[in-house]
């Protein structure tokens, strides 16, 4: 009886250890990804193999959120995920199960301005920023590192020009850049303990129909995807004031809607032509040069791009394909190669965030 009891006890422990190894909880063989699904009012969760980019759906996924979650953001501690519910004007906080990566929402939700469409977070996970389109404002919250709870900082929400469409935070979190499609301009703000102050310089005009922007890791340039002009604009950053200067624009594919930077490479997702324009960046000038064989074909209507935490893969969300697909990145040339790895999302995904 005693021996039998010991065997019954040991088997579950071995099973748990095996599951832990499979899920990468005790190693760095995998990372997690969370995808916002506005048409399902949910957030999907995946575990992705670091070496192969193979997707595994986490048990229970997708997880209910508020109405039409447009953007998701994972905390650098890997304890929390936030989702901006654009039709509900609030933010959902989810805690992450440390063993398997599943989500559990913590209520009540946190109020934002009208129609929050995008979330940003500083690298330390101290502040969360929400871009509110209809109310023309940015809500900023301090993050409780223990519970993940959000508290609005003094002065939040901060007014910006009407109908902002996208924003980007500099790597140092000193500057915030807001894109306005109606004015075809980028507005600059300084950030101090979450408080935003407009940069005194005038906003910088870019191409027509700008829909996405990003800041390079060296905090030297801002890149803007102009969906109507089929170009990407390059702007230099004044390291002291955060003010911007337009350096020039370069042709892309049709209807660019996303832009990401990896080292000295820039990738622009072209919704209309269903491909990815890839460029090498001249560090001193920001000048872009098309990489050989660029643009690279993508699954229908790429809507967003995300670099994986190990800088080996580019994840691309497809609007019409209702999926996430993975491209391997040649770290020497910047060239992209499609992999066989993808995840079906069932409905069009709107954003993706990955754990570190």
Description:
By secondary structure, this protein is mostly beta strands. It has a domain at 29-159: Methylamine Dehydrogenase, Chain H, CATH 2.130.10.10. The protein contains one helix and 32 strands. The chain has one helix at residues 2-23, and strands spanning 30-37, 42-49, 55-57, 63-64, 69-74, 80-85, 90-96, 103-111, 116-121, 127-132, 137-143, 150-152, 158-159, 164-169, 175-180, 185-192, 195-198, 204-205, 210-215, 221-226, 231-237, 244-251, 256-262, 265-270, 275-281, 288-290, 296-297, 302-307, 313-318, 323-329, 336-344, 351-354. The strands form seven sheets. Strands 1, 2, 3, 4 and 32 form a five-stranded antiparallel β-sheet that branches. Strands 9, 10, 11, 12 and 13 form a five-stranded antiparallel β-sheet that branches. The chain is globular and about 45 Å long.
Q: What structural class results from the helix and strand content?
A: mainly beta
Q: What is the first-to-last residue Cα distance? A: 47 Å
Number of strands: 32
Number of helices: 1
What is the C-level CATH assignment of the domain at 29-159? Mainly Beta
Q: What name is given to the CATH topology of the domain at 29-159?
A: Methylamine Dehydrogenase, Chain H
- CATH homologous superfamily placement of the domain at 29-159: YVTN repeat-like/Quinoprotein amine dehydrogenase
Our estimate of the beta-strand percent is: over 45%
Report the uncertain regions. Answer: 1-26
* Gyration radius, in Å: 21 Å
Name the assembly state: single chain
Which range best describes the helical content: under 10%, 10-25%, 25-40%, 40-55%, 55-70% or over 70%?
under 10%
Shape descriptor = globular
Largest sheet: 5 strands, antiparallel
**Per CATH, which architecture of the domain at 29-159?**
7 Propeller
Summed over residues and divided by their number, the pLDDT gives a mean of 92
């Amino acid at each position: 009886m005693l021996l039998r009891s010991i065997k019954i006890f040991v088997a579950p422990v071995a099973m748990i250890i095996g599951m832990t190894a499979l899920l990468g909880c005790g190693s760095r063989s995998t990372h997690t990804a969370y995808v916002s699904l506005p048409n399902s009012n949910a957030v999907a969760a995946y575990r992705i193999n670091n070496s192969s980019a193979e997707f595994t759906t986490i048990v229970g996924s997708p997880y209910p959120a508020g109405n039409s979650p447009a953007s998701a953001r994972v905390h650098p501690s890997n304890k929390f995920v936030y989702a901006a519910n654009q039709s509900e004007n609030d933010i959902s906080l989810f805690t992450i199960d440390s063993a398997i990566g599943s989500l559990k929402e913590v209520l009540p939700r946190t109020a934002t301005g009208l129609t929050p469409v995008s979330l940003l977070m500083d690298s330390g996970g101290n502040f969360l920023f929400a871009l509110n389109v209809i109310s023309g404002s940015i809500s900023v919250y301090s993050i409780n590192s223990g519970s993940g709870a959000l508290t609005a900082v003094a002065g939040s929400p901060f007014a910006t020009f009407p109908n902002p469409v996208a924003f980007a935070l500099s790597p140092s979190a000193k500057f915030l850049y807001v894109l306005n499609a109606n004015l075809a301009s980028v507005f600059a703000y300084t950030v101090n303990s979450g408080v935003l102050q407009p940069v005194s310089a005038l906003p910088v005009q870019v191409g027509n129909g700008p829909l996405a922007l990003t800041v390079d890791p060296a905090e030297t340039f801002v890149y803007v995807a102009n969906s109507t002009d089929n170009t990407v604009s390059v702007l230099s950053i004044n390291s002291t004031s955060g003010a911007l200067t337009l350096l020039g624009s370069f042709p892309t594919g049709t209807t660019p809607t996303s832009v990401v930077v990896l080292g000295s490479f820039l990738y622009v997702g072209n919704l209309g032509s269903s491909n990815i324009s890839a460029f090498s960046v001249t560090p001193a000038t920001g000048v872009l040069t098309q990489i050989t064989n660029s643009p690279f074909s993508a699954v229908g209507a790429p809507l967003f791009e995300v670099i994986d935490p190990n800088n080996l893969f580019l994840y691309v969300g497809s609007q019409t394909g209702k999926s996430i697909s993975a491209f391997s990145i040649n770290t020497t040339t910047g060239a992209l190669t499609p992999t066989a790895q993808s995840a079906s999302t069932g409905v069009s995904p709107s954003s993706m965030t990955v754990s570190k």
